[in-house]
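Slide 14.
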Amino acid sequence: MKRSALDGTQQTNFIYLLPGLLLYAAFVFGPIVAALGLSLTSWDGLTMPRWVGLGNYADLFSDSRFYIALRNNAELMIFYCVLPLVLGITLAACVWNLKQREQLALRTFLFLPYIMPTAVLGIIWAWLYNPAFGPFNQFLRAVGLGRFALPWLGDFNFVLPAVGIVATWYFFGFCMVIFLTGIQRIDPSLFDAAKVDGASARKTFFWITLPLLMPEIRVVLLLTVIASIKSFDLIFTMTRGGPANATLVPNIYMYQLGFELNRFGAAAAIAIVGALLTFAINFAIHRLVGARSKGLA
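Slide 15: predicted structure.
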């Protein structure tokens, strides 16, 4: 029997793992430890850091702007996670019934936004929303609905949904592709049995397709929740957190504290809180949706 190169001793296998471990330590674990250490200091980037213990965290949790950023981030999750998931799974169920050629064309067309950098999308959509010459307001004026033409990115009530819709448009094609892949994984005999039993398309979707897509729903939720908590470039290029903190999110606030106010210790504290928040939400998703997936396996 031919022996694999990985059938060696533990010492030999460790040598194979060593390059990956070193890269992980240098570019992932090291920066995390550095950020954690920095969050316990007061540092302006020029002088020596001064140890303040948990002072940055105490300041952060008594800062009203931080809570505004968290609230905005929670509202943006509707546009980053919920709407793309609902649109993606609905479109996947519809596109799945099309012929292969039409299905491929639609899948490619709807996936296109996801391959573009979000910073570029932010610049393009900021132009589309322009109150003076943006196509949206020009169209509204052309069809006699000029009273609905708004300064979309300058209005306190509409700016967050205006930015969030761009995130929905960016993610829903990606979600649809994930769900289409999941539908292909389902045993076709289940759909045939449902058809023989006279089940309607709606009942087939809610009793067969949707429950068996739980693993894909979990993946989509994990990826979109992480993306929403990490959101920065799209908001930065469109509003920079304004107007009056209406689109301020933790990462934008972290940037302002670090690179505009030279409070790198406080900025690092936001990064650590964001990381803990990501772990906590992802753990909850694993526990809630993952348990349902195992129950259906």
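Speaker note: The beta strands are 41-42, 50-51.
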